[in-house]
């Protein structure tokens, strides 16, 4: 029963991640291509001029809020992603321990009491290693992205509404750059480390623990970390443009990785 409850929760999360991946892979790029770019958003932002950027937001506030809202929604749906992947890794490690002769120890009463209602051991988060670090980094990275996006959107929108074409105060530019760095450099950089550690954790166990599809997913996590980290460094070096040349490709690659994970989750079935 505990195992079925865990699988049911993972499958439910898988549908949420599937929606998130589709938002990042399809809805957001199409919205940017069909709505934002014809309105001049891409040209205005890449120029790096804050006055032109604020004027554009002032004239297209709704377009801007919808765009930021899509990004916020996509990452909000991913909030439990690091923990879900962590739980799967822990479950696989426990299965390996059982296969290596841990069956007798797992039958002791004191160890039976250490299991939570969701089928995971109560000591799971106490361990040390790439999986725990990856889970914490992923959760922190997503949280920073959400907070940075929300606060940054509110600040930029209010600033744009009060902008009348005069000279922009230095503090305004600094705050805008801080929100950009927080969201697109710090948060994305942390997510890059998370995907790297998750990928390393899966890859190190190899075929002895993981099916081929999951093993390839782990290697893909290693690959995803490269463009994400490159994008984070690019934004940190040039925050005025809002993103680096790698940002779009990094997010799409990350979304494809999430899509892969979500499909594997919704297809999970309990062993008879």
Structure report:
The chain is an all-alpha fold and 272 residues long. It has one domain. The chain is 78% helix and 0% strand. The protein has ten helices and no strands. The protein has helices at residues 2-36, 41-47, 50-59, 61-77, 81-106, 109-112, 130-161, 170-205, 212-237, 247-266. Helix 1 (2-36) packs antiparallel against helix 10 (247-266), helix 5 runs antiparallel to helix 7 (130-161) and helix 8 (170-205) runs antiparallel to helix 9 (212-237). Mean pLDDT is 84; it is low at 110-114 and 122-128. The chain crosses the membrane at residues 12-34, 65-86, 130-158, 178-202, 214-236, 248-268. Keywords: Membrane, Transmembrane, Transmembrane helix.
Short account of what is shown:
With 272 residues, the protein is mostly helical. It is 78% helix and 0% strand. The chain has 10 helices and no strands.
Element pattern in H and E: HHHHHHHHHH
| Sheet of most strands | none
What is the approximate shape?
elongated
- Whole-number mean pLDDT: 84
Number of helical regions:
10
> What structural class results from the helix and strand content?
mainly alpha
The low-pLDDT segments are 110-114, 122-128
Q: Calculate the terminal CA-CA distance, rounded to whole Å.
A: 12 Å
- Count of discrete structural domains: 1
Radius of gyration: 21 Å
Strand residue content: under 5%
